[in-house]
Amino acid sequence: RISGVTLIPHMPAIPRLPTPNPLSMKCLPLFLLTLLCLCTSLKAANIESLRRVEKTATGEILANVSGHLAKAYLRSNTDSSLYFAQQQLAAATEAAIPREQMLGYIHIGFAYKYLGDFPRSLEHNLKALTLARELNDSTAQADFLSSTATLYRRLGDYEQSQSYFQQALKLRETLGDSVLLGSTLINYGIL
After folding, report:
1. Does residue 129 contact residue 145 with C-beta atoms inside 8 Å?
2. If residue 15 lies in a helix (H) or strand (E), which one and from where to where?
3. Residue 185: left (phi > 0), alpha (psi -120 to 50), or beta?
4. Can you tell me the distance from the alpha carbon of 101 to that of 54, in angstroms, rounded to the nearest whole number?
5. Per-residue pLDDT tens digits for 10-58
6. What is residue 60's three-state secondary structure?
7. pTM for this entry
């Protein structure tokens, strides 16, 4: 035995792990709760900052801020998310900013998906996909192809779902994004 390390013949030395401090183990839940509260309060402060900007913004800034608000509210207040996504689309359309229009359509689609309105979600997802193709945005196309496939699956149209998953997989392979390729394969496997 050499300074806290047990030697086993023909085996490399394995250091002993320190014994956890009972006080630190008791404090862990409190630390995690504090961290959660801090993150929640930072998100609320961020939303309030965005809301202040949104009140006076126009054009591209209004579209961008509305998009951030749509994302921020998606899981906590889906009706507000839908409102801001529609505002994003309207501002982007008025200012003729196709990329923000594309994001507006997808944010509206996400909101309808969270509200359980899959046909309307699909409608907006397809509009976002059309714009992604027009913009030659391969990453957005792959994302929207995959989400369109998922929506068709939810609607029970497995043939369309398979077609969109195959398109998404082909594009993901071309892009070389192994993480999103894996995610798409998992979703395709659920089909």
Report:
1. yes
2. strand 14-15
3. alpha
4. 17
5. 555 566 666 655 555 565 565 555 555 444 444 555 777 776 667 766 7
6. helix
7. 0.72
